[in-house]
Amino acid sequence: MKKAKIRKAVTITVLFVILAIVLTPLWWAIVLSFDRAATTALPPFSWLPNEASLFNYRAAEKLIDLARYYGNTIFITIVNTLISVFFSLMCGYAFAKGDFVGKKFWYIFMLAVMMVPFESRLVPLYLQYKSWGLLNTYWPLILGNFAYVYGVFFARQNIASIPDSLAESAYLDGAGEWRGFFSIILPLSKPVMATLSILQVIANWNSYLWPLVVIRDSAKQVISVGVAMFNAQQNSVYYGPRMAVAVLSAIPLTILFLILQKHIVASIAVSGIKQ
């Protein structure tokens, strides 16, 4: 019993130290964003701003068109999330409950696709969209979400755990395949929908390489590329405004995660992926 208590205390201490190591730089970034003294020089580390002010945020507003990058990213994120979640659930339902020729083959093929790094497909995809005349548009950022392979796998795991008797009872009442999908499967898939949504939001919000390759017009860029361009163009001493931009770009994801985190845990428990 005593050993168990010691082991628990050591575990908590180690986790607390790791948490402190991870959160301390993030907290300092927030402090610098509110520190007027960080505009022209990097002040020594402190837990609170030396000169508390909103100057860095006002300066960042003038130095970068953050509203435009926000708008572009929100548009792409909403469209891609709706497309990927809906089609992932449809395909997951087909693999979990459907019966069609080559079902096992296509499912294994899909799993194999998950193992192919995106970087190895970047050049062929670029040449493909170039031949279609779609470069410098949002289509290269959107079309790939119709086949969100990980989402299909995740949805299939979740839907497979739903008892067949629920859908069969709906069919006996005269419901068709589509009505069964919308009235039975979707309501019971809310946890996985929330999880896929937040994963897609994070992926789209942090997407950098692909938008950088296919979007040439800076006015069309997403926030991750916009912030990187801002940091590359600004003088290295502008720590405060740069931290202010970083904080503003991270706020939406932080709020979304706090709202939906319980659904992620529920989805992992239901899907059976948790080890």
Shape: globular
**Strand residue content:** under 5%
Major sheet summary line: none
Helical stretch tally:
13
Task: List its traits.
disordered C terminus, MetI-like fold, 2 domains, mainly alpha, 275 residues
Fold and architecture overview:
By secondary structure, this protein is mostly helical. It folds into two domains: 2-55, no CATH class; 64-233, MetI-like (MetI-like fold, Orthogonal Bundle). The protein has 13 helices and no strands.
Give a quick rundown of the structure.
The protein has 275 residues and is an all-alpha fold. It folds into 2 domains: 2-55, no CATH class; 64-233, MetI-like (MetI-like fold, Orthogonal Bundle). The chain has helices at residues 2-33, 55-63, 66-97, 103-114, 118-131, 139-142, 149-160, 164-172, 177-188, 190-206, 209-214, 223-233, 239-271.
Topology (elements, then pairings):
Blueprint (H helix, E strand, L loop, with lengths): L1 H32 L21 H9 L2 H32 L5 H12 L3 H14 L7 H4 L6 H12 L3 H9 L4 H12 L1 H17 L2 H6 L8 H11 L5 H33 L4
Helix pairs in contact: 1-13, 2-13, 3-7, 3-10, 3-12, 8-9, 10-13, 12-13
